[in-house]
């Protein structure tokens, strides 16, 4: 069916969606669908892909079948379509979440011609009963959304997507539109082959999203960095991606504890909670969603202002699509990723055990991600090059590498050497191998191919393989090198590269980033305190206060707060009980019990001296959820023998006592009387307790042993009694 003059198509747009003009390629795509042709649509997130099938479905006779991967996405889009129409049956979804009655209603609306858009999960499409039902319906066209799921080279491969074409053939042939926001040339051809649409008209929009700011940061204290960033962007909507469900839960909790309206989202949650959390985000009841990659596919929230990757994604397609959820309205969109090579190693480990071909593909995609993260070349240029698009500007002025450029230097000789090395190994090896040849690394692979005997071997040994990898990467972006993705990334020299070898011209190289690999422990106390300067005046004032409080309560000063805690207070300046709980060695119990006078004094001191306190104090930690500690606490609550606890966890008794000391130290009250009464006689108990209460100047075990006598008292007995003493009086 064809629509005549331009004006009439714009009338439909205005009538159904309230827009006056089309975006980008939307209009030509819609005309192609209306004319009954197959269409392949490559349009970045935020480009308006959905409209390309929604509008023609409303204009054409029959029902359009939209094959979509996510139930949440279907619900979202069906709600949106119903919002544009007075007829509720205009859009439906068909999937496993429906009851029998609901399923019947959907089928009736389709057969009655009320339904213009029917969203179907690929799994539902393959069911025989649904195939029989759809054979009876009048189908206007098929739309395959998130079509990259078809390709093994795509970032979200789903085997059931590869069965779509045979099923369409079974149901009945109609025009086909495949849509995706991310596809390299390799993925595109894979999709077209699999859907048998090689003759389709291809509509490719630019992948450049000028409003997005790209930044990669080293993964050092990432949770703390994220909290600071969100606090500085208060009230703005954002998504944080983590690779594991456990990390999603942990990070969402730590954000909540720090007063940020955040909720988790992952496939392990029950459907009601998950969609409830998504709705709260869309309705702006919460500002931040912490999610696995399951979240956000097709989520139509135009004003997401930031997308943070706590973990670097498995592929650049994934990264591009996830960052693409920021700034879909053309406004601000900050894309910040935390990178540590340790995360890459973890991802490589996860791949072990998968089929070899899948491992090779996965590794190749990871190498691209590492290249992007470590490169100091314009991020936009790197991304667009990956998707087969050239970016000609020298400086995009909207990424960390352009705004804070790394050192640059003349690199024409090094580029020529790298290109010659590719030729020397007969253009049959990956970048990693070529880099090792130039740097002169004699590993097993190099020896087995006798590449250590090549004249060029070690010509660039003044630099390491990491450096040569950076040279190869920059020569690739410059077009001097071709990378054969089909053959797992083998490098060859392009005609342009051969010309460069013959006639080298000036070539500016940029030094790569050297990110330190540092693990970010979510639960850990702030470790920076020790390197910051202690305010000695405040330290002495706090020690005097501790002495006074101890005297009033008739307790040794170290029971109130130990020296490291006082020192940390003189660095961090806590001015609320909540902040006091963040101080090293101060748990909730101790802060509530003894903290009030200390925070009052510090508050007054800070005001008088006009001190600017470290932002880090805002960050509160979640109680340490270490499985071992939880097990110990629960076992002691059940009065299980300490020997049995140690045996169950394969610990020496001294190791178990150390764990218990650390639990009590962090402010948790534990009652181990039941064990002490069985193992230490009453008189000894009284002597040790009395020593800590009346005589001890510090909590030192050595001092206690010296005072009480090593012959009569064991270290274990003193440590157990010290735990009892601290638990009763300190917490």
Question: Can you describe what's shown?
Answer:
With 731 residues, the chain is of the alpha/beta class. It has 5 domains: 6-204, Rossmann fold (3-Layer(aba) Sandwich); 212-402, Rossmann fold (3-Layer(aba) Sandwich); 412-506, Arc Repressor Mutant, subunit A, CATH 1.10.10; 528-618, DNA polymerase, domain 1; 627-730, Orthogonal Bundle (Arc Repressor Mutant, subunit A), CATH 1.10.10.1390. Helix content is 49%, strand content 11%. It is built from 34 helices and 17 strands. The longest helix is centred in the C-terminal third of the chain and has 22 residues, at 588-609.
Ordered list of secondary-structure elements with their pairings:
Elements: H1 6-17, H2 26-34, E1 39-42, H3 49-59, E2 63-67, H4 71-83, E3 91-94, H5 100-111, E4 117-120, H6 122-125, H7 128-136, E5 139-144, H8 164-171, E6 176-180, H9 185-194, E7 201-204, E8 212-218, H10 222-232, E9 237-241, H11 245-257, E10 262-265, H12 271-282, E11 288-291, E12 304-309, H13 316-323, E13 333-339, H14 341-351, H15 356-374, H16 379-386, H17 400-403, E14 408-410, H18 412-424, H19 431-439, H20 444-448, H21 465-477, E15 481-484, E16 490-493, H22 495-502, E17 508-510, H23 536-553, H24 557-560, H25 563-572, H26 577-580, H27 588-609, H28 627-637, H29 642-648, H30 653-665, H31 673-679, H32 682-695, H33 701-708, H34 715-730
Parallel strand pairs: 1-6, 1-7, 2-4, 2-5, 3-4, 5-6, 8-13, 9-11, 9-12, 10-11, 12-13
Antiparallel strand pairs: 14-17, 15-16
Helix pairs in contact: 2-3, 14-15, 18-19, 18-21, 19-21, 23-25, 23-27, 30-34, 32-34
